[in-house]
Amino acid sequence: MQQSQTISVRERTRRAVRAEMTMLGQELIAARGYEETTIEDIVAAVGMSKRTFFRYFTSKDDLVLSKYEFFGDQFAEVFAARPRDEPVWESFRRAFDVVVGYFDDATQVPRILGMEKVIDGNPALRAGELERVSRVQEEIAVLLRERTGRHSPTDPGPGAITGAAFSCLLAAKATWITADPRPPFGELLDQAMAALKPAEKGVGKGRSVERPR
Questions:
Q1: Structure confidence by residue, pLDDT tens digits, 37-88
Q2: What pTM, to 2 d.p., does this model score?
Q3: How many CB atoms lie within 10 A of CB 9?
């Protein structure tokens, strides 16, 4: 038990340091541009050595996209904790609240908007973002299979429903980036999810889930 607690504290500390480094690094990139900002610039702004930087990130790309590690952990935690008899679509929406809070933080909008535009304008970062989103989707799809009892590898339903939910999230993000004036992210997400809301029957009891219509 003592070892488990020690690892937990260490992991929380690691995540806190990563979060601080990410915020400072992204502020620099949003202000200067991705190509114009070097790892040396970032470590100077953060106040640490380049060697220490590589203890937390594998590259500059990793720093830019690091939010998906946090989002993935939070999605899984919230989704797994939702009532099993709750409609799955509602569970997805509640899990996505962590993203709503991120985008609707008025104090961080300039940095967030700047970084989203950096990612969209860089093919390598865009590909990396999609790969990380896909990885998170796969993790949540596993939780959905466990929740519904649909474990067959030939059943595409849980993966399809998870993919549809994440498509709504990405559609809301794309609209949020370009909209002027910019509506609250939560409103855009609600609209997107309402457009694809599937019919559900007994999801919490492991019975079938109808495909989105």
A1: 999 999 998 889 999 999 999 999 999 998 888 899 899 999 999 999 999 9
A2: 0.81
A3: 10
Instruction: Report the distance separating Cα 158 and Cα 160, nearest Å.
Output: 5
First to last CA, the chain: 49
CB atoms closer than 10 angstroms to residue 140 = 24
Phi, psi of 61 (to 5 degrees): -60, -40
CA–CA separation, 117 and 146 (whole Å): 36
DSSP code per residue over 17-74 = HHHHHHHHHHHHHHHH-TTT--HHHHHHHHTS-HHHHHHH-SSHHHHHTTHHHHHHHH
Domains, the chain, ranges and CATH? 1-57 (1.10.10.60), 65-213 (1.10.357.10)
pLDDT tens-place string over residues 193-209: 999 887 655 444 434 34
Q: Which two three-digit tokens encode residue 39?
A: 């790892």
Do 96 and 87 form a contact (C-beta atoms < 8 A)? no
Segment 90-100, tens digit of pLDDT: 999 999 999 99
